[in-house]
Each structure stands twice: as structure tokens, then as C-alpha cells.
Request: fold
Amino acid sequence: MRDESRFESRSPAKAPVELNPGSGSGAPAKAPTPGKVDIEGISNMKDPVARNQAITQGYYELSNQMAGLLGKENANWATLGVWASKQAGVSIRQEDLPKVFMDQLKGDNKWLGALTNIGLGAINPLAPAMAEALKVPIKDALNRVSDAIADGNQKLFKDIAPEFQRFTETFKGDTKYDAAKVEKYLEGFPPGKENLKAAFADYSKAMFEKDPNKKAELMLSANDRVGVHEQSLIQGEVERALNAPLKETFAPIVKATIDAAGNALPFPANLASKGAKATGLVDKAVDSVVNGLTGQFRKFATEHMMKIGLPEGSLSLGDDVNPGAQGAFPEHLRTIESGELNRLLSQYDKSPNSLKGSSANDWSKFDQRMNYIVDLFRSRQGDPRLFNAP
Reply:
């Protein structure tokens, strides 16, 4: 159920826009070819909320087109992309900072304790005023986070989705593996997309592979290689989303609130406040308060934003990947026979053949993201629920 209470307002953080690939573009959208995803039109949409919804639907259509060639026994990367994009939409719409966070600030004086600790108890009871003043910077910080996520969502779709569509258009209707045709197709990948080229080489082999174990391994290899490409591509957006300059945002508001409270105190308490400011005690208190606020925000953001929603429910990226409906790994991926896939996994999986140790402490680190992703992909690849509509 959607939470409409963020920042104690019934108005959404981002105004919803009708889902129309031409929305905000200044010109009518061209009608897409039937059965073809209008990747360019979707990528050029201006409203991030509507664009994310269209991207999620686009991945769903591409996932089903890929399944027409590869089957639904194994999820392809676009299938997993549906759920990642849907989760990104939660952050883009700012549904992950509800009213409860503001209530928590108002009711929690721990991050103001520094004022009392240095002898400024006279101006300590500032929690309600501080929380009220912090609404704007907190919302600004969240806007920057959601903007970075929206940019990454758009960047990935614009870069990767065309390759999925080109694959389905190239091989639709084929009844057997054609090495010459595959080779010619692979020549269409430009420099810089080596991982995608290798991924789609594996998808092409998987199309006509009869052995379910070998097919599952080819699919996992392909999915992981697309994962390497995507995570490399959005490194900057991930860092920007997680490293918003919160201290710089919070500090001026905290100082202004403390100054106003100190000036409003009756004599001689107001003089004591000015004396504390002159000796640097207020600055020390501000640093402590800002650090506390930053910690609160990051903790909340990690808990609510660093997760992925799947048909079974949400998984926290800060926890180990938990076993799925088929156990730690699906039947055909419980052991890996392919030497090439084992070599690929050895580059990224810190705990081979186990979900223990798959958690990410810092999602901004590429190696930690990939460590989580390879286990997530392997553990969920055989779950048919991933093909459900988002």
C-alpha cells in the first residue's frame, strides 16, 4: 500500500504524470512498432516517475520477448531488471521517507544530547523546533538521492535495453543454432560493451541447449556479465545516491536554530549562550548534533532504500541473500560444472557456493555490489514468479 504521509503532506514528492513516452518531450511521441519497445521514447521522457514506470514495463516486455527464445525455466537479466527498476521507483517517488522518520526526529533527543553534555542545557529542548527546521534539508537530501537513482535507472535502460531488443529481433523464429549468424550479430557490439557481447554470446548458446544444467549455467553466466556491465556503468550514480553531502546540508540549519534559541533566552542565559559560541562550545555541539543527524538519516536510508523488492518480498542489501523457494540455489545451479562460469564467479563471489557472506556493508563499492548480485542472481534464477507482471 502506498504511503501518502511523507513529510506530513498528502501531496506526492514527485507529481505523477500520465504514462506516455512522449510526456514532457515537447513533441508528440511516434507510435512504436507493434511488439517493439519504444526505448528511445521512454528514455527521453522528462518526468522521472512516469519514465521509471515506463522503464519497468519496458523491461517486462523485453523479459517476455527473451523468454520466447530462451524459455521461462531461467530468468534472464531483463526479468531481474523489472524488479530492480520497480524498487528504484519507490525511491524516485520518495515513498521510502514517510512521516515516521520526522516523528522519530521529534521524539528522539539522543542526537541533541551533546548540548547538555557541554553545559548548554538551557537551550537543549530543541527537538521539535530542530525537526521542523530540518524538513527542508532532509527533503533536499532525499531529492538528490532520488534524482541520482532516476538518472541511473534511465542510463541503464538507454544503454542495455537496445541490446535485448536487437537480440530478440535477430533470432526470432530461429529453429537451430547458426554460428555464422551469431558471429555476425556479435560484431554489432561497439567497443566498451565487451561484457554485454560475452553475455549475449551465452544467451545465443542457451537458446538451443537441451541439457538443463548447461542451459542454466549459460543463463547465469550471461546474467552475471550483464550485471558487471550495468554496475560499472552506474558507479557514479550509486556513489552520488549514497554520498549526498548531508553534513553540509544539516549544519547551517542546526547552527541557525541554536543561535535563534540562544538569542531568545532571557538575561543572563542569553549571555551564557553567546559565551559558549565565542569559546567554540556551540561549534562542538553542532558537529556532534550534525553527526547524529547524518547517522540517523543514513541508517534510515539504508534500511528503507538499500533493498530490492521481489515477488516473495523485499531483501535487504545489508543482509546475506536468504534462500529462495528452491533453497540456496535452484536445482540446476547447485553445483557449477562450467570452468568458464567458475572463473567468472571467482572474480566476484567472496564465498563460493554459499549465500553466507553475500551481504554488502557499503553499496557504493563495486566489489561488494557484485558479491551480492552474483549470489542473488544464482539463488533466484529458477524462480518462475520473477516473470509475474510488476
In short: Residues 277 and 283 are 7 Å apart (CA to CA).
